[in-house]
Here is the input.
Amino acid sequence: MKRYLSLVLLGLVSAWATSAHPTLVKVRVRVILVDQDLNQKPVPFFVVSLKSGAKAAEVKTNLDGTAEAQLPPGRCTISSPKPAELSGKRFSWNIQVSLSGGEQNIDLTNDNAKVEETAAPASSAKVATNDLTGQFKRLKNTVVTVRSESGHGTGFFVDGKGLILTNQHVVANSEYLAVQFDRTHKIVAKLIAADPQKDVALLSVNIAALPNASPAPLYRAGAGRTPVQEGERVFTIGSPLSLDKIITTGIVSKVEPHTIMSDININPGNSGGPLFNGAGQVIGLTTFGTRGVDGPGVSGTVRIEEALALLDQNRARATGTPPPGGEAAPGRARA
Here is the structure.
């Protein structure tokens, strides 16, 4: 009898413990927006608040726009303390879902968000344009394809005297260097200086042989300012794969002291190309890209400040060096 009562009591205690401490649900939140070009854009480093019963949690999304929390089952409120901004709109969330089971996935998207239009400041409305067609037409002649013995990359003019910035790994130790402006203009180039640690290199060409070439506007940061903020739209013009002067857009994921991370699509041949902000200023050199398993990858860009030091230190040296001849570069015909 005592043994029977003990078993009953143990069962009641276990039932009470289970009801008092229910199994938690692993909640995976993904914040992903669709821009005006119908591209999916994960929202990184975005704070999401979750409250289920007496338990509340605040999480921040990773580079892929996801975050996780452990919450008790039942009615859950998911909200965003601050809105996310994309394509001139603000997106905020305050939704309720029912949590159950061991795991649950919740997407915060355009469809379940509260959407507000953002008015661009009058002072920046003219330069911060979303007209990528106009930006491309204005900036495409600042970009060249850089060819070496190991392959090709991208570079861009930094002045009207024929100086070009690119990645050091594009030129490496190649004895053969050339730049291709378009299908009919290809000229020899000379290496002026390089910094392998920062992965930047400075080239010189006879710009007189390229009458339509123009220098790219370079961003020069003021005290305490960064060239771009997380969530801002950026674009690059480069020579990916076997193509020339292709425009690609993306969103900044993270700004670090020496690099800028974004979801811009970087392929072999893009290395050394200019990363432009919304105003059409160069804020970095596109350097590497990684592929995501279930979505867009992450791309790394060397900040323009890293390259400006090399440029300023060697500008005088380049001025005193005669530019290479403007004849077509021999040997490596364009593929």
User: Anything to note?
Assistant: The first helix runs from residue 2 to 20. The mean pLDDT is 83. Helices lie at 2-20, 132-139, 168-171, 304-319.
